[in-house]
UniProtKB/TrEMBL annotation:
Alphabetized PANTHER family for the sequence: PROTEIN GLCG (PTHR34309:SF1), SLR1406 PROTEIN (PTHR34309)
Record protein name field: Heme-binding protein
Transmembrane segments: none
Any Pfam family hit: HbpS-like
Species this protein is from: Marinomonas primoryensis
Amino acid sequence: MLNAIRQKKELSHESAIQMCLAAIAHANTLSANIGVVILTPAGVELAAVRMNNAPLHALGIARKKAYTSASFKVSSLSWQEKLKHKPNTMNALLKEDNFTYLGGGLPIIVDDEILGAIGVSGATEQQDIECAEHAIEKLLSSLSPSK
């Protein structure tokens, strides 16, 4: 039985918490209030934080964004373009509990392997994306050997 067992890497809960804090720190620079969710590649929640003044729906939407990114290994926003001329597919996917094409969900990829996904919601779509990107950049810089 060749390849009967696969080993997968995923983020630690400590890294997930640090990513949430990095996204929130960036949101503070934008005067935005967000919710942040970090999932494993299998869609299991590692960390979730909602800023006090974030919309009540922020965490639920952030979770959908992260789940979409973990599932398809692409940004949640990329689905807007992919589905633009496919209304039947869009309608079918939007009926799925954990799917959204709203921007703010990104896969967390290190060395060409998905380690998880982040979803951010509560600000503008562009600000949500910026906060998610900032958190990923902080993670990647923490993994790089210091010079």
